[in-house]
């Protein structure tokens, strides 16, 4: 039986990504959506992209564009992407450039194309996968890029219509645990921090929704039932 996963913000943490993928033991027929922010802050964005490009040749892989990915593309002068100028280096871009030897011109074209092909959001069944959030008052086809990639959660967002669930990243959870409340599930668990984790949500597998995690030290934990992380207040 095929399985489907969502993986949170990687932020250049190649060991965490490799460890997590090993734990998931993905096989032909499985699917995975990565929620964006492949780039910045962690030590090896270049290797993160190599790992995911290779993974896309083996399974059904979808990638969503995060704000850090957009800043990277903007810094490379790609049209249609936000260029924040030197601020990008302070937001973790320096680590990204260092992973390519420090020269923007050495970023491989296949890495650029991979990021440029990323989606704004992905729909699957009742789930809407997105980097940052959606505006529940607007149809999915009319979501603005600012909401999809840049806005932070307040945790007061109303549940989406029609029983949908939004699975997102971007708003980092310093606890190292996902945050779940009605209609929403945020799985960015701040992998680049010393005590952070990279999180995968297994969607509706044999054991229901489950959480898997790995960190940049090569540790792995899980799976855990998603229900243990639901807000009780």
Automatic annotation (TrEMBL):
Pfam families per the record? Metallophos
What InterPro entries does this protein map onto? Ap4A_hydrolase (IPR050126), Calcineurin-like_PHP (IPR004843), Metallo-depent_PP-like (IPR029052)
Record's protein name: Diadenosine tetraphosphatase
One annotated GO molecular function is: bis(5'-nucleosyl)-tetraphosphatase (symmetrical) activity
One Gene Ontology BP term is: RNA decapping
Assigned GO CC terms: cytoplasm
**Top-rank lineage group of the source organism:** Bacteria
What positions does the domain Calcineurin-like phosphoesterase occupy? 5-171
Q: Which organism is it from?
A: Alienimonas californiensis
